[in-house]
Amino acid sequence: MTHRIERLCVIGLGLIGSSVARAVKARLPDVIVIGHDASEAVRGEARALGFCDDIADSADAAVTDADLVILAVPVGRMADAARAMAPGLRADAIISDVGSSKAGVAAALRAALPDHAIIPAHPVAGTENSGPAAGFATLFDGRWCILTPASDAAPDAVAALTTFWKALGARVEAMDAAHHDLVLAVTSHLPHLIAYTIVGTASELEEVTESEVIKYSAGGFRDFTRIAASDPVMWRDVFLANKDAVLATLQRFNEDLTVLQQAIRRGDGEKLEQWFTRTRTIRRSIIAEGQDDPAPDFGRKH
Ligand code: NAP
Predict the structure, then answer these.
(1) Which of 13, 29, 94, 268 has the CA that lies 20 to 30 A from 82?
(2) C-beta of 99 in contact with ligand 1 (< 6 A)
(3) Cα dihedral angle (203, 206, 207, 208), rounded to 10 degrees?
(4) Is the pLDDT of residue 209 over 90?
(5) How far is the CA of 12 from the centre of ligand 1 (A)?
(6) In which element (H, E) is residue 178 found?
(7) Is the CB of 202 under 6 A from ligand 1?
(8) In the beta sheet, which residues pair with residue 94?
(9) C-alpha 97 – ligand 1 centre gap (Å)
(10) For the residues of 206-233, what is the DSSP string, one character each?
(11) What average pLDDT does this structure show over 223-240?
């Protein structure tokens, strides 16, 4: 069976959900987009911004006749959101999500919707902002979207979702959910934990005043503050959902930190230089892959 996506429902109209809706209206203008958010205030804001064809007040009304439903709520709310929409779902609707961790979300969605085709996904794109006004249509351009279909997932549903994300500008790859969670623990979850730690530590150092931390932040600190400004609820849920992979990665990080700590204490400049040379290569590879701007200092105006 080939799936044609003519009607999309987005549940959760924050940064990612509203960006999906905006990207669909820009790139797939014939697709009808219905939105729903549990928050009345968000529904009102989304109506005023006008990035959906219609906003429904309930989840089950929103999903009526949808070919594809995308859940864009915090990972700890996926099960609730799935249960709320279940009565309105068409039997052949494809269910997907955009959650930042995958194994736990996939299990929660399967338990809530045992008879539906569930193809979990994670667009690896975002900003530190949240809410419907923060979204934009080009968020997924050139970014990766990782699908984590179960081994028995219907190939036509996987193909339809792949085509959908490519139409929004993303590059698509499929992998096992557990592997996704390990990769993202390294590339996203640990960096967020480190940023939350550094910014918290700096603000509590007694010898340095808060005004000094802000005043001299261009020395590197401010780059961590962007990440540490990310949505507290979303990130609380990510760490709770991806606990095992995050703790395993954190263990490795602590060991490496001890190696650098030793090198500093022993005056081992060679070790430090070797390490920093390798990390500089990684930054250059990210730029070469088109995953960041080559402009120095992230293109800030001086
Ligand atoms: P967001 O801006 O906070 O938006 C989430 C929205 O979902 C909020 O309006 C929230 O309303 C609503 N919501 C919560 N529970 C709901 C429910 N049961 N039913 C319907 N709506 C509900 O968050 P976001 O950044 O878009 O993140 C959404 C998802 O995308 C998360 O799973 C996150 O892991 C994933 N993701 C985020 C990023 C990123 O950089 N931000 C990147 C990739 C993937 P309330 O505020 O009233 O709770």
Answers:
(1) 29
(2) yes
(3) 20
(4) no
(5) 6
(6) helix 177-184
(7) no
(8) 68, 117
(9) 10
(10) TTS-HHHHHHTGGGTHHHHHHHHTS-HH
(11) 96
pTM: 0.95
Sign of the Cα torsion 237, 139, 8, 133 reads positive
* Residue 25 to residue 9: CA distance in whole angstroms: 13
pLDDT of residue 15: 98
Secondary structure percentages of the chain, helix, strand, coil, to 5 = 55, 10, 35
CB 175 within 8 A of CB 119: no
**Sorting pLDDT into bands at 50, 70 and 90, what band is 208?**
confident
- In the prediction, which pLDDT does 300 show? 81
List of domains in the chain:
7-175 (3.40.50.720), 179-291 (1.10.3660.10)
Backbone torsion region of residue 290, taken as left when φ is above 0, otherwise alpha when ψ lies between -120 and 50, otherwise beta = left
pLDDT attached to residue 1:
59
Give the number of the atom of ligand 1 that is nearest the alpha carbon of residue 80: 18
Strand partners, 35: 10, 55
Least confident segment among 45-54, 95-104, 148-157, 196-205:
196-205
In percent, how much of the chain has pLDDT > 70? 99
CA dihedral 187→191→193→196, nearest 10 degrees, is -150
- Residue owning tokens 């499929």: 174
Q: Which of 129, 114, 77, 75 is nearest to 98 (CA)?
A: 75
Q: Are 193 and 250 in contact (CB under 8 A)?
A: yes
pLDDT at 196 > cutoff 70: yes
Q: Average pLDDT, stretch 130-137?
A: 98
